[in-house]
Amino acid sequence: MKTYNKTHSNKKAAETHLEKIKKRGGKATMNPVKGGFHIEYSFPEKKENKKKKYDVISPDGFSIRIGVPPFSSTKERDKYFKMWKERYARQGYYSSVKYGRIPLADLADYCEWIEV
What we know:
Order of helices and strands: EHEEEHEEHE
Strand content: 25-35%
Radius of gyration: 28 Å
Number of strands: 7
Distance between the termini: 28 Å
Number of domains: 2
Structural class: alpha+beta
Helix content: 25-40%
């Protein structure tokens, strides 16, 4: 966190500056010094705005994504899941090592829907 310093010769100007700092979420201290008022202030680090990513874990414990980055929306995730599920439509079920044959109508219940 970077700290800033400012000295104002006028008390009213120093108080106005202090008020603006606090409005923006900063922390500040004001001390009288020879020739005016000294303000030492800082602002919290900006939080990195990470967008949420989504994935689906199959009943066997691995991601259903094949060469595809994590999904940026639940709509995109659901669309890919539907496409992935259609790969098993011909046989009529998903074959899991852990659970055996899972009817396609129940497949979503056996998957883990996660936020990455």
